[in-house]
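Worked example 3 (structure in, sequence out).
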């Protein structure tokens, strides 16, 4: 990681920029390591409890190591009715991890989300921001194969506000 000192200097040591600072730390590590947060707390003279409350308030931050790839399965009503439970179960089986956790090799973090606002594409899986619509159990394997084999660039570019394939 860039030194904490360089990061804080970039933000003029301004405690009011804590969200930006945490965002950069999250981007660098894929989570917020406790020892880094403690250093930031000391350098900016912000109580650790305040930094911790910010880090736990925003869903974009994680205090646990996250995977290289983020896999989200929508479990909202439209997705659920169209088989999201089976899609999620297949993703869990394939990755050998339950939703809300990261694989042992830190390649994938599997999560559920209540709604992605793309109900016409239900059920939907989002990997690293790429939307994969009308997903079924078989398609889960195809999607994850792309990322396991390093071919994630094959997902379609953004279209109509959504990224991925319809």
């Amino acid at each position: 990681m860039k030194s904490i000192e360089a990061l804080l200097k970039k933000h003029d040591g301004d405690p009011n920029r804590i969200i930006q600072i945490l965002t950069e730390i999250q981007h660098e590590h894929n989570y917020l390591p406790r020892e880094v947060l403690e250093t930031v707390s000391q350098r900016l003279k912000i109580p650790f409890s305040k930094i911790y409350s910010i880090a736990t308030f925003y869903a974009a931050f994680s205090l646990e190591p996250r995977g290289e790839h983020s896999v989200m399965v929508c479990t909202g009503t439209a997705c659920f009715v169209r088989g999201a439970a089976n899609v999620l179960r297949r993703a869990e089986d394939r990755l050998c991890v339950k939703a809300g956790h990261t694989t042992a090799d830190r390649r994938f973090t599997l999560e559920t989300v209540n709604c992605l606002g793309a109900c016409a594409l239900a059920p939907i899986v989002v990997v690293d921001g790429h939307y994969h619509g009308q997903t079924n159990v078989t398609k889960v394997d195809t999607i994850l194969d792309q990322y396991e084999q390093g071919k994630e660039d094959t997902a379609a570019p953004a279209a109509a506000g959504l990224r991925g394939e319809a």
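Notes: The longest strand covers residues 69-74. The helical segments are 4-10, 18-29, 34-44, 48-57, 77-81, 84-95, 137-148.
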